[in-house]
Each structure stands twice: as structure tokens, then as C-alpha cells.
């Protein structure tokens, strides 16, 4: 056998394995490939490799002397052919049986065959116990004509093996042992380099480890002396003690660790180790350049030409670099298929040309939330060889470091100074080239493109670093306002060209007073100094920031909010599904996080690019079954998902790009239809350029910043582990170069494309027929097949989730599929649901799903069980609230007929227009069904037994309470009417014509009893009235009087008042901060505690504001109103107001014409001029000048709205500078924008603080409640009259 990495060869596996460990293994790599060249297995430990060699490549023990129990065996299932004993051959067959291959009995005149190892051994023991080699089939074993022939073969073979062993030993002693010492020293140095560059152990810690190990080994020397003496005495060897000491000293001297790390060793100190690393590993040292020597402002540069030279000296790297592989005609598969590569005169059409890709970005090495944020912010420039295929250049050690500088200093001194050393090497590469010895010529190259986020690309390219300016796009001359109405595909926006850009730069240089021309503010330093690079052809878009951190999180937020508002699912349910979804493989690492509660306000779901990609890709599996296909918001998300799949594709045709262009256009139109008031982001505009940009740059996923940004994590970890901030730039660059040198010192710079650990080689004849046919169609000459349960190809793991578990069962013939399922569940201990399939002999044993037990074959059946995978434990959407987490219904199990549970902390719906009669117990439902049939056929009414009546009333009371704790008589009557309408047999004889009067009375008393039960159980809504019932009128009860849905909810499950008080305290502290955290301010969890204080204690507004300051934010007022009433305050109020405004004005003008209201004309005129001002005893709305103090105007004002105008504007429509809400003489909210918003906040606060309507304006607020917001059905006569007139207008 020959070594797969060099020319060394040997017949023994052990010798070859030792050779590999000595010459080709590197510490820290954890990669042990099989020593057989034709085997693809790679292992992480030597133990796994040895196990593999024993199983997959077994050694056959040769007979050492003549014997009669050996023969020449040949296996029918593999290439095994050797002289061995029968026991050894049967052991070989056992390996095939372990792979479930069918093995024929090797004895003659026996037709037995099996795939089970135990069955084979039992058969051999019973049928062929005393049979010898002469009884074997001649095709399996051939025995020589005489024993002497066999003896000759055996002895000669044995002597040959012994000669091989002697030759191997001499080979090791003469060759390997001479080189062993420097090789081991190099491996030890590689281990120390791995500790510093890969494991991030500091130099001081490394030195301590070396010193301590040396001390331990020195102390152990005395034990070595005594051990040598004991061994010599054991073998009766009396030698001088000085000889024993010499032996021990020699052993210590030959110890590679001691010899290298003692005082005079080459690896004993940090200084010596660094010298050794530079000399033996060829570390390319970073060079420190100075911005300003006085202020000690520096940056570091890693020489590009030296790094390129060290890379191209490796044969494996050179093989992947030249020549550039041609793309498939008609497809875009790499940057070399793009138009911009084809017009580059230096690199196009040349076999030995280098195309480089740069990346620039800023990143924090310190805690971005700590006191050192921005202090250690670093600007990094990386580069990569684009000649490599994407799977090779995506490795982090394939991405090389060029420049590191502090971001603040780079901004001060500019890119011209920062890029100067890099540009010097790039100019040399463009004109002189780099001599490559293996090729024998100079290789020239240039920068093909620069990857960066939009801000970084604009900064380096010389465009304006703002996306709110007129000319914000680096691809065309579109203006910010025009992108809202015009598509890129319409061709109205002129595309930027090199000629046009050069003209803009010339105009800038010609005038000192022009700051920008068409968005260009400066000349790019790369274009200025490089002959074959241009800004227009060198800055591709970044899919990472445009799509995954731009368009996707925004549109997800908008669409999910719309789907939640449509009640397809709830906010809590969506988060529950996201958390419980069964993610696999890389999705486990990139699993989406919980969507924040403020996503609808921020209009983004947050998350990083990986998480958003996983969310948009898996969302159809999560909630797709809950949303109708014709829902436009859902169609918008599905269109976006298709666009993403196309954009990130690594292979695109011209037809695909035309389809992508059409898809983006359709998506834009659908976005406008679904969200007419939303504006397009600049990133939406960049997305419209993608089809054309793919034609120019090739697949955009090859040039995005995702892999480059992953490089930042290495530097962050170095700083985190070393804690070195003295000169972080030099430290980071030095550690990085050590890591690159360590990678270059390994056997392979690139990872093996295929990585397999467990492999089984079987004959094609032993493979399943369907698999054999498929393989033969692809590889007709293949005789054996390698099977593995998992394999990694270019970093992607492919594996079998659940290998077949074959079991044999003997059971009586079942009468039905259900009975068979029950038997299988019991016998096989199966949990969960499953589907049964069987092999149908009528269809060539293809698998068919079992629906009828008669379909099974009569004699015996082969079944396959498929488990039904439940993607997520989804709770019914009616159980969960949209925006609250403080409900007990997350874990409640409720019947489908009842949308709410009486134990839920919050109700979710208002009283329905048609009361849904719940389902009763199973026996009651059966009896009611039979009674309804008897009533329809015979007219026989049902005499309701007591137990049935109690069950019906109990269930009705639970359902009624899920909507209201104190229903009105009219509402109870509707419940009774719905009951007898669904079950006519329940009409009470002798009752009124409807037959529900008796049920109404019974239900009324049942509700009183049910409330008493809840009061005894500690229900907050009932307990609050425990002490006020005695001697109190009905009107004094603390209960909802304005159709509040959640008037006084119970505390969330698992939280007591002490924990809720801690939550309240944290909210109170957060309000004191300048930059508020909306997550902490969110008052959902403490809703029940707040309502208890407000309803039960009835504190002053000032007290509430002191204890609950977070409640008096605009977002929280709306959220609190939603928690109480399950109605969106703003959208409902504004929509209804728009619908009724015309009717109200028509009514007012009609009244004014009748002359009944003298001041109505004046009010209408003031309304038209927007200068309305009125005052009453309870509510005041007045206009103030901004020079006036608000304090005097809030006195004696129980409820009010104050508007402050600009005193300098004396026109008919003064500018409003502030609008405030006053409660109990205190300004509780200000800066509300306009009167409409202030009135909505005032109305929301009346509900949130449980304040009564002002007596003088009670009808006004009642009209807003019951007409505008549709809260409550029954109205006073005056409001009902107004409502009727509005409907008539």
C-alpha cells in the first residue's frame, strides 16, 4: 500500500499508519483520513480510524506453519480471496450479515440463505457441525491436492511476511528515526502555534503551561531511575548506577518535549518560539504604518504580494487557482460569467490571471453596549482569490487580512492614506505581476470587485453616505421621491456608466464649491490608483443587508401584523410556533428568535440575516395551514420567498432572470395594493436592479458579505480571550497571521470535499433492487457500492434521519386497520400517530398505503411504518391574545366549541351577535339528538331530567362567563333563545311562545351561582365585590359598565403579586433613563396587577402616574385599551370617524338651516378655519400661545386638552407646537401632534384609569364609545336616535 500523500509505501497497515502520524498529521486539525487511497472515510480521532481499519479493511492472519484446516477461500459478495481457516472465513461472512446482506450457506448441497447473523450461526451449528473443508462448495473453497502443497504455500507466504517485517523495521531505523527528532520538534511547535492562534491561549499562559510540564517531567526523572533499576534486577542484570543514570538521562534527552522546551531548547521562551515560527512556518509579519507619529495614530498592513506568493507555492492551492474554470454556456454560475468580468481587459481571456475580491467593514471588538463602545471600533479590509470556487473561498482561513485601523482615525486621515500600502502592491500586481515558480512566469491580476454594506460601499466608492438624499442609488440616477411611483424595469431611470461617472468626478474637481454631482462627492481611491478597476463595475449589491436585514424583516412585520389583525393566528401563537418548530441541521443554529412585541411599531421583526432567512423559508410550514391562499398579505410573503430563493441561487439562466424581474414587479404592485400608505425603502429600489446586476456581476450570493462578516468573529474572540487592548491592531494581525501560517503548514489547505466516517462496502447484487437499478442507470460498470448513514459534502451534512428498524412479528389476522394499528402500537411500543404501508405483490412489491385490511397479502405481509411528524404544538388561535403574554390560556385545554376558558386571565372577544351554543357532554348530546328526531317525527317534547338540565346550564354558564361576568337580561334571553333554536326539544311546555322563558330564568340563577363559585375560588373579578355586597346597592358593584371585556383579570399563571411588583419596579426605573427600552416598558405582564390597583383602590391619577409611568406613553395607552376591549383604538377610531364625518356635518348643517341652534353656524365656521375653542364645566379645550405657562390653565380642569400655538405666527392658521392631555389638573401626556390624536389618548386613558365620563359631556363620550368604536349594543334614547339618523344619511 502506498501513502496517499507521498511516495512512501509498505505492505503493513500499522507501519503505514505510523508513517502518516509522523509526517502528515497536524495538531489541532482533528482530521485522520483512511490510509487506503481508494477509501473516502475521514475521522476525527485515531481510535475511530483504527476501528475503521479493523472493520472495513481487515488483515488476514497468515498461517505460520503447515496445517490442514486452511484453504483458499473466495467470497461471493466481495473481492475477498485468501488462504485462511474456515473460522476466519465465517467471521468474514459475519461482516456481510451485519450489513443485512444475504449470504448463501458455503457448504455444498445446501440451499439455505439468510440476512441474519444469529440465524446463520444457528444453521451452521445444527446442519454442519462436524463438516470439514472438503464439504464446502468448490466455488467458495479450494483445497490443494496434497497437504505438502498447502504447507509449501503457507510456509513460503509466512517467510515472505517475516521478510517484509524485517525490511520494514530496517526501513524505520535507517530513515524515519534519523528524521524523527526534527519532525517531532516541528509538530510540537505546531501545537504551541495552535494554542495561540486557534485556541487563543495567551503567550504568558502558554509559558506557564510549558514551565509546569517541565517541572513535572523533571520530578518524574527520579521515578525513571528506580524503574530502570527494578527492570534490570528483575532480569538478573547487575550494572553500575552510573550506567543506569546514563540510561535515564538519555531517555530524558530523547523526550521531544523536554529537549525542545528546556533552557537551551528552541521552544523554551516566547521569544525563541516566535523566532522558530517565523523561520519554520514562514509567518508573514504584519507591518505597522503611521497616520500621525506625534499622536501615535497607526494602522497595520499584511503584505498582499507576500501572502499571494506563499499561497501559490502550494500545489493544491495552485491547482484550484489556475486555470479559471469556464462557466456553463447560457448560465450565470460565477463572477466570471458576468459582463463586467468579460469587459475587464486584464483578467478576461487569460489562463493565468488573478481576480481578487476586497471587503471593507467596521466592527466592534469591545462590548458595543459598554463604556468602551466606539473606542475600539475597527475598520478591516479583507481579500480573497475569486479564481477559487465558492465552496473553497468560503472557508475563513481562505479569506485573507489586508488592513486593520481604528475607524475614528480612518475617517480623519481618509482612505487615501489607509489604502496606500495595499494600493502599492495592487499596482505592482497589475503591471509587473507575481512570479510563480511552478508556472514559470509572472502572474498579473487586479481587484475585480469590492463587497461591503451599502454605507461602506458608498463611503469607499465616493458616493454620498446617506440614503435620504436626492440621488441615493449607486446603480442609477433615480431620485428618492420617484421610486415610490416608478419601477426600474420601466427604463425611466438612467443607469450609471463609467463615462457618466468620470464626468461627475471631473465636475467635482473643476469647482471647489460643488459638494456633489448626481450623488458623487469624491473620487474612489481604488479607481484613482488602479488601471483596471472602476467604481461602476466594481461595487456589487449586498444581498445580506438589502434583503435579509432590510426588505425581509420590514415586510414580515407588515404582513404578520395584517395576518394577526385578520385573526388567522395570534401574536402569542406565532411566537409559540416559532419556538417549538422542529429545526434541523443548520436551522438549529440559525433558528429565528421570538418576534418582539413592538414589531408593529418599529415595522421590523428584528433578527440577524441567518434568522430572517430561516423564518421566511420556514414560515409556510409554520403557519401556512392557517392562512387562506387568497389572502393578499400571505401572497406578498410567498412572492418575497420566491424572490429570495432566486436571488441566492448559485446557477441562473437568462429565463430565470426574466422570471425574477417579473416576480419583483408583481411583488411591488402587490405591496402597493396591500399597504397603500407604506413607502418603498431604498433597498426595495436596489432589489429591482438585481436581475440586471446578476447579468453584470454573476450570482450575487457569491459576492455578498455574509462570509466576510463571519471573519469578524475570529478577531472578537482573540480580544475576548487575550484581554489585550494595549495595541489591539498589532495583536489581532499577528494572531491572524499565525492562524494562516498554521493552515498553510497542514497537509491540505482546503478541507476535503467529502467527509465520511462510517462506511460499508457491499456487492451490487446485495443491494435493494430499486436502488441497484438507479445506480446501474448512472454507473453501469459499478460492481460494489459504499453505503454510509451520513456524509459531509463541501461542508453540508447529508444524513439518514431514522434508519430502518426491521422487526418480525407473528400476530393473528386483524379485522380492521384500526385493530392492526393498536396491535403494532402495543407490540412495538410506538408513540404518536403513524401511517402503515405494505408491499403490494400486484405492483412489483411497491409500497402502498393501507386503507382496508383486506388489501394485505394473505400469507404474510411486509409493512413499513411512517411517523406523522407534528411540526409544532399549536394552540388554537382563539386561545391566545394578539399582543399579551399575561394569559393563562397558553396551557389551557379548551373545547373547540368554546372560544374562551373561564380560567383565562383575559377574554379575547366581545359579546357575539349570534351566541354560539356550546357542545355538551357526549351522553347529553346523544340524548338531545334523539329527542330532536322524536320531536320532528312524533311531536313529542322532551321532559328534561335534572342531571341533563344541570349539565346544560353549567356549560352555558361557563360559555357566558367567557364573554361577560355580568350579562344583562336581554343577553341572557338571547342565550336561551339560541339554545332552544339549536335544540327545539328543549322548549319548555307552558312557557311563552318562544319556549325559552323558563331557560332564561334558570340561566339567570345559574349565573349567580356560578359567580359565587368563582368568588369562592378566588377569581379577582368576583372577589373585588365580596365586601361591598352587604348593604350595597347593585349600582355600587365594581363591574364593567362601558363594555370592558377584561375589566379585572386574574394574575398570569405562575406569577404572584410579589413578582409582578418587581416587574413594575423595573418599568418605573426604565422610565428614568434617557434611552428607553420598549421591551421593559411594555406593560403586558403587569396588566392584572395594574387593573387591580385601579379598580379596587381607585387611586388619584397622580398616584397612578407615579407608580405606572410607562402607561402614559402613546403606544402603551393604545396597548392598554386593546387589552381591556380587544379593539385597536387608533385604527378603529380613525376609520369610523372617516365613515361618519360626512353624515355628522350634513346633520349639523341641516340643524343650522332650521335656526334651532343659534351658535351652530359660528361653530361650523370655526371648524372650517380650524380655530375651534369651547369650554364647559368639566372639559376644556383651549388654544394657548407658546409664551404662556400651562400651569394656570390646568387649574380646576378635571379632564381637558390643551393646544399650544406659535406666538410668532399671527395668520388664520397658527402653527401648533404642542398638544397635551390634562387629567385631575395635571398634564399627563404632551407632544401629541394634533387634537384628534390627543382626543384618542384622552378616551383611551378614561378606560385605562377606569374614570367616569364627565357628566356634562356623557352623551358625547357615549356616542364615541357606541357609534365610533362600536363598544356596546344598548344605547340611551338620545344616542340611539343619533345612530338611526346617521344610518339614514
From TrEMBL:
<feature type="domain" description="C2H2-type">
    <location>
        <begin position="34"/>
        <end position="57"/>
    </location>
</feature>
<feature type="region of interest" description="Disordered">
    <location>
        <begin position="1025"/>
        <end position="1051"/>
    </location>
</feature>
<protein>
    <recommendedName>
        <fullName>C2H2-type domain-containing protein</fullName>
    </recommendedName>
</protein>
<dbReference type="InterPro" id="IPR013087">
    <property type="entry name" value="Znf_C2H2_type"/>
</dbReference>
<feature type="compositionally biased region" description="Polar residues">
    <location>
        <begin position="1025"/>
        <end position="1035"/>
    </location>
</feature>
Amino acid at each position: 500500500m502506498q501513502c496517499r500523500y507521498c511516495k512512501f509505501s509498505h505492505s503493513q497497515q500499522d507501519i503505514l499508519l505510523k508513517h502518516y502520524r509522523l509526517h502528515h498529521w497536524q495538531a489541532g486539525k482533528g482530521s485522520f483520513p483512511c490510509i487506503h487511497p481508494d477509501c473516502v472515510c475521514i475521522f476525527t480521532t485515531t481510535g475511530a480510524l483504527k476501528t475503521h481499519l479493523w472493520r472495513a479493511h481487515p488483515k488476514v492472519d497468515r498461517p505460520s506453519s503447515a496445517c490442514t484446516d486452511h484453504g483458499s477461500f473466495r467470497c461471493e459478495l466481495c473481492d475477498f480471496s485468501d488462504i485462511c481457516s474456515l473460522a476466519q472465513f465465517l467471521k468474514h461472512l459475519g461482516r456481510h450479515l451485519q450489513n443485512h446482506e444475504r449470504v448463501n450457506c458455503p457448504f455444498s448441497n445446501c440451499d439455505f440463505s439468510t440476512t441474519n447473523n444469529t440465524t446463520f450461526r444457528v444453521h451452521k451449528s445444527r446442519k454442519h457441525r462436524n463438516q470439514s473443508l472438503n464439504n464446502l462448495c468448490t466455488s467458495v473453497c479450494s483445497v490443494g491436492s496434497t497437504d505438502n502443497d498447502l504447507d509449501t504455500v503457507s510456509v513460503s507466504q509466512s517467510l515472505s511476511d517475516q521478510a517484509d517485517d524485517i525490511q520494514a523495521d530496517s526501513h524505520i531505523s535507517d530513515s524515519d528515526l534519523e528524521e524523527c527528532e526534527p519532525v517531532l520538534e516541528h509538530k510540537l511547535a505546531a501545537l504551541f502555534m495552535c494554542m495561540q492562534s486557534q485556541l487563543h491561549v495567551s503567550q504568558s499562559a502558554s509559558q506557564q503551561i510549558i514551565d509546569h510540564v517541565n517541572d513535572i517531567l523533571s520530578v518524574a526523572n527520579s521515578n525513571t531511575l528506580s524503574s530502570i533499576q527494578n527492570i534490570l534486577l528483575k532480569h538478573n542484570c547487575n550494572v553500575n548506577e552510573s550506567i543506569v543514570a546514563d540510561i535515564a538521562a538519555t531517555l530524558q534527552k530523547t523526550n521531544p518535549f523536554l529537549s525542545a522546551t528546556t533552557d537551551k531548547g528552541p521552544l523554551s521562551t516566547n521569544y525563541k518560539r516566535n523566532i522558530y515560527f517565523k523561520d519554520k512556518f514562514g509567518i508573514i509579519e504584519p507591518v505597522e504604518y503611521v497616520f500621525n507619529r506625534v499622536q501615535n495614530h497607526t494602522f497595520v498592513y499584511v503584505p498582499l504580494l507576500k501572502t499571494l506568493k506563499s499561497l501559490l507555492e502550494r500545489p493544491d492551492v495552485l491547482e484550484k487557482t489556475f486555470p479559471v474554470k469556464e462557466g456553463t454556456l447560457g448560465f450565470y454560475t460565477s463572477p466570471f460569467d458576468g459582463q463586467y468580468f468579460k469587459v475587464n481587459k486584464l483578467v478576461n481571456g487569460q489562463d493565468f490571471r488573478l481576480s481578487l475580491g476586497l471587503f471593507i467593514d467596521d466592527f466592534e471588538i469591545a462590548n458595543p453596549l459598554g463604556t468602551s463602545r466606539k473606542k475600539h471600533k475597527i475598520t478591516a479590509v479583507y481579500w480573497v482569490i475569486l479564481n477559487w470556487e465558492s465552496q473553497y473561498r468560503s472557508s475563513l482561513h481562505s479569506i485573507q487580512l489586508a488592513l486593520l485601523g481604528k475607524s475614528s482615525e480612518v475617517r480623519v486621515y481618509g482612505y487615501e492614506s489607509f489604502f496606500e500600502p495595499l494600493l502599492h502592491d495592487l499596482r505592482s500586481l497589475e503591471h509587473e505581476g507575481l512570479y510563480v515558480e511552478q508556472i514559470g512566469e509572472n502572474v498579473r491580476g487586479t481587484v475585480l470587485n469590492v463587497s461591503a454594506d451599502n454605507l461602506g460601499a458608498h463611503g469607499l466608492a465616493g458616493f454620498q453616505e446617506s440614503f435620504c438624499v436626492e440621488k441615493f442609488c449607486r446603480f442609477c440616477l433615480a431620485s428618492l421621491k420617484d421610486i415610490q411611483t416608478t419601477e426600474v424595469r420601466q427604463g425611466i431611470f438612467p443607469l450609471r456608466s463609467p463615462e457618466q461617472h468620470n464626468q461627475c468626478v471631473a465636475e467635482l474637481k473643476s469647482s471647489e464649491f460643488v459638494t456633489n454631482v448626481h450623488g458623487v462627492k469624491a473620487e474612489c481611491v481604488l479607481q484613482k490608483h488602479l488601471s483596471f478597476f472602476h467604481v461602476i463595475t466594481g461595487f456589487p449589491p449586498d444581498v445580506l443587508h438589502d434583503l435579509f436585514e432590510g426588505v425581509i424583516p420590514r415586510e414580515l412585520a407588515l404582513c404578520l401584523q395584517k395576518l394577526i389583525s385578520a385573526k388567522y393566528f395570534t401574536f402569542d401563537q406565532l411566537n409559540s410556533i416559532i419556538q417549538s418548530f422542529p429545526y434541523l441541521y443548520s436551522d438549529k443554529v440559525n433558528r429565528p428568535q421570538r418576534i418582539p412585541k413592538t414589531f408593529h411599531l418599529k415595522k421590523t421583526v428584528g433578527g440577524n440575516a441567518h434568522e430572517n432567512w430561516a423564518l421566511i423559508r420556514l414560515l409556510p410550514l409554520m403557519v401556512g395551514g392557517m392562512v387562506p391562499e387568497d389572502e393578499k398579505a400571505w401572497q406578498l410573503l410567498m412572492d418575497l420567498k420566491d424572490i429570495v430563493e432566486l436571488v441566492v441561487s448559485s446557477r441562473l439562466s437568462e429565463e430565470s432572470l426574466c422570471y425574477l424581474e417579473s416576480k419583483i414587479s408583481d411583488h411591488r404592485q402587490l405591496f402597493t395594493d396591500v399597504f397603500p400608505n407604506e413607502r418603498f425603502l431604498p433597498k426595495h429600489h436596489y432589489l429591482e436592479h438585481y436581475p440586471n446586476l446578476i447579468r453584470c456581476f454573476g450570482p450575487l450570493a457569491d459576492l455578498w458579505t455574509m462570509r466576510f462578516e463571519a471573519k469578524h468573529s475570529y478577531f472578537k474572540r482573540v480580544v475576548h480571550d487575550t484581554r489585550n487592548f494595549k495595541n489591539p491592531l498589532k495583536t489581532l494581525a499577528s494572531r491572524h497571521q499565525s492562524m494562516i501560517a498554521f493552515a498553510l503548514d497542514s497537509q491540505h489547505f482546503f478541507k476535503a470535499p467529502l467527509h465520511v466516517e462510517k462506511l460499508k462496502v457491499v456487492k451490487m447484487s446485495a443491494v435493494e433492487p430499486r436502488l441497484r437499478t438507479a445506480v446501474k442507470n448512472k454507473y453501469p460498470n459499478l460492481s460494489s457500492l459504499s453505503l454510509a448513514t451520513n456524509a459531509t459534502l463541501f461542508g453540508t451534512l447529508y444524513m439518514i434521519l431514522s434508519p430502518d428498524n426491521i422487526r418480525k412479528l407473528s400476530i393473528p389476522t386483524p379485522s380492521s386497520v384500526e385493530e392492526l394499528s393498536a396491535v403494532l402500537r402495543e407490540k412495538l411500543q410506538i408513540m404518536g400517530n403513524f401511517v402503515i404501508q405494505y408491499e403490494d405483490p400486484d405492483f412489483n412489491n411497491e409500497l402502498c398505503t393501507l386503507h382496508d385490511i383486506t388489501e394485505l397479502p394473505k400469507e404474510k405481509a411486509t409493512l413499513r411504518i411512517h411517523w406523522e411528524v407534528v411540526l409544532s404544538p399549536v394552540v388554537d388561535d382563539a386561545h391566545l391574545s394578539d399582543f399579551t403574554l399575561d394569559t393563562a390560556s397558553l396551557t389551557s385545554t379548551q373545547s373547540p366549541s368554546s372560544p374562551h376558558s373561564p380560567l383565562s386571565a383575559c377574554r379575547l372577544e366581545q359579546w357575539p351577535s349570534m351566541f354560539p351554543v356550546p357542545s355538551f357532554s357526549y351522553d347529553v348530546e346523544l340524548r338531545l339528538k334523539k329527542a330532536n328526531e322524536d320531536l320532528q317525527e312524533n311531536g313529542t317534547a322532551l321532559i328534561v331530567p335534572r342531571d341533563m338540565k344541570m349539565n346544560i346550564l353549567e356549560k352555558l354558564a361557563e360559555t357566558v362567563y367567557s364573554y361577560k361576568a355580568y350579562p344583562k337580561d336581554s343577553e341572557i334571553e338571547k342565550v336561551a333563545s339560541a339554545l332552544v333554536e339549536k335544540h327545539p326539544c328543549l322548549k319548555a311546555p307552558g312557557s311563552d311562545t318562544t319556549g325559552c322563558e323558563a331557560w332564561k330564568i334558570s340561566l339567570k340563577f345559574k349565573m349567580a351561582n356560578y359567580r359565587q363559585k368563582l368568588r369562592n375560588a378566588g377569581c379577582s373579578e368576583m372577589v373585588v365585590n365580596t365586601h361591598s355586597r352587604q348593604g350595597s346597592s347593585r349600582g355600587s358593584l365594581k363591574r364593567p359598565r362601558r363594555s370592558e371585556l377584561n375589566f379585572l383579570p386574574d394574575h398570569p399563571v405562575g406569577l404572584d403579586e410579589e413578582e409582578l411588583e418587581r416587574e413594575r419596579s423595573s418599568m418605573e426605573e426604565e422610565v428614568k433613563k434617557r434611552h428607553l427600552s420598549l421591551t421593559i416598558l411594555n406593560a403586558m405582564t403587569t396588566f392584572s396587577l395594574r387593573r387591580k390597583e385601579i379598580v379596587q383602590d381607585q387611586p388619584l391619577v397622580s398616584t397612578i402616574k407615579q407608580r405606572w409611568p410607562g402607561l402614559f406613553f402613546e403606544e402603551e395607552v393604545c396597548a392598554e385599551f386593546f387589552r381591556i376591549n380587544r379593539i385597536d383604538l387608533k385604527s378603529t377610531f380613525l376609520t369610523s370617524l372617516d365613515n361618519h364625518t360626512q353624515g355628522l356635518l350634513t346633520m349639523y348643517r341641516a340643524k343650522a338651516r332650521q335656526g334651532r341652534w343659534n351658535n351652530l353656524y359660528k361653530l361650523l365656521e370655526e371648524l372650517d378655519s380650524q380655530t375651534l375653542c369651547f369650554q364647559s364645566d368639566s372639559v376644556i379645550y383651549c388654544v394657548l400661545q407658546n409664551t404662556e405657562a400651562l400651569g394656570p390653565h390646568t387649574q380646576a380642569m378635571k379632564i381637558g386638552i390643551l393646544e399650544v400655538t406659535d406666538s410668532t405666527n399671527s395668520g388664520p392658521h397658527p402653527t401648533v407646537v404642542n398638544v397635551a392631555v390634562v387629567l385631575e389638573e395635571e398634564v399627563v401626556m404632551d407632544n401629541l401632534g394634533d387634537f384628534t390624536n390627543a382626543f384618542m389618548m384622552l378616551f383611551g386613558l378614561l378606560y385605562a384609569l377606569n374614570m367616569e365620563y364627565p357628566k356634562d359631556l356623557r352623551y358625547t363620550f357615549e356616542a364615541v364609545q357606541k357609534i365610533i368604536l362600536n363598544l356596546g349594543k344598548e344605547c340611551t334614547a338620545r344616542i340611539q336616535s343619533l345612530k338611526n339618523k346617521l344610518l339614514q344619511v
